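Handout, section B. The chain below has 252 residues.
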Amino acid sequence: MSHQFINLTADNIEKEHLCCAIADKKHQAGVAAKKQWLKERFAEGHVFRRLDAKGKVFIEYAPLETAWVPVLGDNYLYIYCLWVAGSFKGKGYANSLIEYCINDAKEKGKDGVCVLSSKKKKPFLSDKKFFLKYGFEVADTAGDDYQLLALSFNGNKPRFSENAKKMKIDRKELTIYYGLQCPYIPDCIKQVQEYCRENHVPLTTIPVDTLEKAKALPCVFNNWAVFCDGSFETSHLLNETFLKKKLMGSNF
């Protein structure tokens, strides 16, 4: 591996790219929103570490107490995303990033590291098999598929909030909870809103714009959660194409 890694900070974030959505113009509003969100998180111990190259190779994590997810626990780090894409795969970058996070947790005196995953690989969620190799174990479950994986250093383990395990809401229309941590989300919301308006599909979008709202969510959440007919459907980002496919299928 010839490339070096860098950590984004309040001092360098404006001149550095965010890996995902590097050159796609339609996502630049999302990039700006994500950078602003990060600026407000760095003081909380939030870490965004990426390869110093034009590619999608990064890890993003934060202290669990200030992580915008309905996961509870003491003295843990929560991994939002670990992504190695394209020609950068197979070069050991994912190993370097997770090992950095684990060592960072130990140096900071944390009790462990946790991450949202699933029984079977799902888009936009971390691959369970990769984390199991590093000693992560299933600490809690929500619904039929979703799992909270944890690498505990002392036996203490995190958990989903009881509200997150409900995976149900009272609303029957298509409902999307979303944050602005992912640069793709603003454009996804725009596409979904336009499609639903043009096709007369009832839609409710609910911004998750505070830590308190994130911790109180009625489902698993890692920037995005979709409900239909009162039941949680997916954490997969929706654009017009994917939404149309879902509405024509049996899931929605």
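Note. The chain has a mean pLDDT of 92. Compare this with the example in section A.
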